Here is the input.
Amino acid sequence: MALEYVTLKLIVQIPCLNESDTLAETIRDIPREIDGIDKVEILVIDDGSTDNTSQLAASLGVEYIIRNRSNLGLAASFQRGVDHCLRHGADIIVNTDGDNQYCGADIANLVQPIVSGDAHVVIGDRQTDTVPHFSPFKKFLQRFGSWAVRKLSTVDVPDAVSGFRALSREAALQINVLSHFSYTIEMLIQVGRRRIAYAHVPVRTNPKTRDSRLFKSILQFLSQSGSTAARIYAMYQPLRVFWMIGLVLTIIGMLPMVRFLYFFAIGEGDGKIQSLIFGAAFLVIGFFTILLGILSDIVNYNRRLLESILFRVRSLELELRTEAAAKDDTTSPAQSVDQRPAGNKEREPVE
Here is the structure.
């Protein structure tokens, strides 16, 4: 019996906003031949650029170009790129930045845990303590932020906000980015929640070419990242979040209640009715907050069911496209049209 030949297609997606100064260097840095990968293609997502980013990408031989008519933001562009990669048969998707921050040659190392079947998601570790253009304060924020994301997501990676990451087809089918600011934190929370196999590898960075366009100040970054993390965590762990809030409100309500009961027991309850009213109000609020958490948890189960249905619909669409492409394939019949990474054959959610 002849052995099946499994072909692997990698698409490197690059979200861009006015990156005409650095895009050429970024694309030239991407290797077109990688061990274990049969085909490497590039997708540029032009997020409403006002320069010639799209035209430059076309002149550089980029296989796919998506142009947003208006600026949708990094998170929406990332998700749109992932969907486009899946539609065009990507077995592995790598996301990198258009400012050439990451060393393109390290894509080969980034995808190896997926090629070998050891992981579905791989995060590039920039080793931020060694990056020369990061200030000591920024390095501290990176360490603290990664620690906080690790606690929220239960995904133990040293560089949680790194945009240099790889996804297998199975992981990409399950990732649904909903936030508007950045995909990095939300994606890791989903990885941890769904128990998707992950890994991290050290990657190199290139010299700084420009300031970040994602945020204007460190304060804005902290505010946006914190609110995104809290919102996404509450969406996936509503019972825990509302239970803790309800518990705190209940304890606050019990303190004046205990004070009133103490004075009432010793015959000095007159004039302490305010404590009774204040405590009762917080106890009622705490009770309804816990009740809200229970209802949110029920909704959360329904959402997980919808995500499971979405996963199966996406998988079915890809199988139909693969079958249609196989009918038009002019390659030898001995070659397999199965384009899934070796060791990643499962089609069910790994939740």
